[in-house]
Amino acid sequence: MRKDGKLDYLEMQAAGAIDSVKSFYSAAFGWTFTDYGPRYSAFSEGLDGGFDASAAQDAKPLPVLYSADLERTLRLVEDAGATIKRPIFDFPGGRRFHFTDPAGNEVAVWAE
Fold first, then answer.
1. pTM of the entire structure?
2. pLDDT (tens digit, 9 = 90+) per residue, 23-50?
3. Which CATH number does the domain housing residue 26 bear?
4. Nearest to residue 45, comparing CAs of 62, 60, 64, 61?
5. For residue 72, which phi and psi values (nearest 5 degrees)?
6. Are 60 and 13 spatial neighbours (Cβ–Cβ below 8 Å)?
7. What are the Cα distances from residue 69, in Å, to 5, 41, 50, 58, 88?
8. How many domains does the chain have?
9. Using CA atoms, how far apart are residues 13 and 63, in angstroms rounded to an integer?
């Protein structure tokens, strides 16, 4: 049952790149999609979140995905065609890297 005020959906842009975005996330992370016409495709892969007070005021939302093996996931992301924005680095809570997908969305992947 959904609760009022609970964040339960993340929508990212894919202007002109819906097929390449779907192909990328399928290859890199095994995601599956449900198409709703030629311009929209949904995924269901889980969601938690937080706010970053140190982010620039014009920063966009940053989806953060989990990985049990960060180096392996980095290779899969690179092989699927992502651009690495920030190589693996330490942060309070683990390690992570950032990439941009074929539509230009910045996404992070973290591990403990």
1. 0.83
2. 999 999 999 999 998 888 999 888 767 7
3. 3.10.180.10
4. 64
5. -65, -45
6. no
7. 33, 27, 23, 31, 12
8. 1
9. 12
